[in-house]
Amino acid sequence: MNKYLEQLIQLSKFDKEIDEFIPRVESVEKTLRTTKEKLEQTNIAIANIDENLEELKLQKAKTNTHISEFAAKIKEVAKKGSQAKSEKEIKALNLEEEIAKEQLQAANEEIQRLEKIEANKTESKEELEKVVAEISNELIKIEAEISSELQSIEKERKEIYMKKDKLIGEMNQKILTFYEKIRKWARNTSVVPVKKQACYGCFMQINDKTYSAVIKGEDIVTCPHCGRILYKETQE
Ligand SMILES: [Zn+2]
C-alpha cells in the first residue's frame, strides 16, 4: 500500500480516538452534575418546609392571642354575672359566656390542628436532611472517582496526541492539507474503507475503475461521489 495512504489511515484513526474522549469526559461530568442537582433540589424542598413552619408559627401565635382574649372575656362575664341584678341581664351574660366558650374551644382545636401539621412538616424536614447527608457523602465519593478517571483520560489523550504529532512530523505537507480540507466537512469519516465496492462514507457504489485503483492501493483515491479518501480494508 502507498505509504502516504497508510499514514492517512493512521492519522484519521488518531483523530477519531481524540474525538471520542469528548463524550467520555461528558458522561463522567454528567454524573457529577446530576448528583449536584439532586442535592440542590432537596435543599430547596427543605427551605420550602422552613417557610411553611415559619408561617405556622405565626398562625399559632395569632390563635394563642385569641385564646387569651376569649379566656379574659369569660372571666369578665363571670365577674359581671356575680353583680347582675335583673333576669334579663343574667340571660344576656349567659349568652355572652356561651359564645366566648365556643370561640375558645374552636381556637383550641385550631391550635391542635396547626400542631399536627407542624409535626408532619418537621418529620418531612428531618427525612430530607437525612437525604442531604447521604447525597453529600455520595458527592464526595463521586468527586474523588471523577478526578482519577479524568486523570487517566488525560493520560491516554496525551499519549495519542504524542503519536499524532510524531506522525504529522513524518507526513507530506500537501497530503496533510488535503486531508484537513476533507476533515472539515467529513470529520471522522474522512478516510473510509471500501466494502462490497461501496464507499463507507456515503455508501454509494463506486465504478470499476476507481475500485481497481483502490484495490491496487498505489495512489490516494477519493470517492467520485463524495470526495472522501478511500482504501481497501485489509482483512484482520
Ligand atoms: Zn463516498
Describe the secondary-structure layout.
Elements: H1 3-83, H2 87-170, H3 173-186, E1 191-195, E2 198-199, H4 208-216, E3 221-222, E4 229-232
Parallel strand pairs: 1-4
Antiparallel strand pairs: 1-2, 3-4
Bound molecules: zinc ion.
Residues 199, 201-202, 204, 223, 225-226, 228 line the site of zinc ion.
Keywords:
4 helices, Helix Hairpins, binds zinc ion, 4 strands, 236 residues, mainly alpha, 2 domains, four-stranded mixed β-sheet
Structure report:
With 236 residues, this protein is mostly helical. Helices cover 80% and strands 6% of the residues. The protein folds into 2 domains: 18-171, Orthogonal Bundle (Helix Hairpins); 177-232, no CATH class. The protein is built from 4 helices and 4 strands; from the N terminus they run αααββαββ. The protein has a 4-stranded mixed sheet. A hairpin with a 6-residue loop joins β3 and β4 (229-232). α1 (3-83) runs antiparallel to α2 (87-170). The longest helix has 84 residues, at 87-170. The two termini are 15 Å apart. It binds zinc ion. Zinc ion is lined by residues 199, 201-202, 204, 223, 225-226, 228. Residues 25-159 form a coiled coil. Keywords: Coiled coil.
